[in-house]
Specification:
128 residues; alpha+beta; three-stranded antiparallel sheet; single chain; three-stranded mixed sheet; 41% helix; globular; 6 strands
Length: 128
C-alpha cells in the first residue's frame, strides 16, 4: 500500500471510460485531520475537472494532479460528512485541496482560482 502523495495510477482500461480517466492501481492511505482513510485500488479519477480550453492556465495533469485525485475521492465518497455535516465536510475537502496544491508547488493564483470555482460549482458534485 502506498501513502499519499504516492498515488499509483494507470490509464483506465474500461472500454466505457472517457479518454482522460485514470484508475488507482494500489490502495493509497492518507490522513485528513483526525480521519485516516484509503483511496482504494480501482478508484477512477479524471484529475481536476478543468475544461480543455483552460488547460494552458490550469493543467489538470500537472502539479495539482495528486491533490485533485484526493479531492475527487473526498467528494465521491463524501468523506467527513457523517462527522461534520455536508457543508463543513465539503469546505474541508476544498481547503485540503488548496493545502495539498500549495504543498505540491502550485502557484497561489491558480490554486485560488480553482478554489473559487470549487466553492461556486462544486456543490453539484458533492451531492451526485
Amino acid at each position: 500500500m502506498s501513502e499519499y502523495p504516492d498515488i499509483r495510477l494507470r490509464k483506465c482500461t474500461d472500454p466505457a471510460a472517457k479518454l482522460d480517466w485514470f484508475e488507482v492501481t494500489e490502495d493509497c492511505s492518507f490522513h485528513w485531520g483526525d480521519l485516516q482513510t484509503v483511496i482504494p485500488k480501482g478508484f477512477i479519477t479524471d484529475f481536476a475537472s478543468v475544461p480543455r480550453w483552460l488547460w494552458s492556465l490550469l493543467p489538470p495533469h500537472g502539479k495539482m494532479a495528486n491533490a485533485a485525485i484526493l479531492h475527487d475521492y473526498l467528494y465521491d465518497y463524501r468523506i467527513g460528512e457523517a462527522q461534520f455535516g455536508a457543508q463543513k465536510a465539503r469546505l474541508l475537502a476544498d481547503l485540503q485541496f488548496v493545502f495539498n496544491c500549495r504543498q505540491a508547488g502550485v502557484g497561489s493564483v491558480q490554486v485560488w482560482v480553482v478554489f473559487v470555482v470549487l466553492r461556486v460549482f462544486g456543490g453539484k458534485w458533492w451531492v451526485e
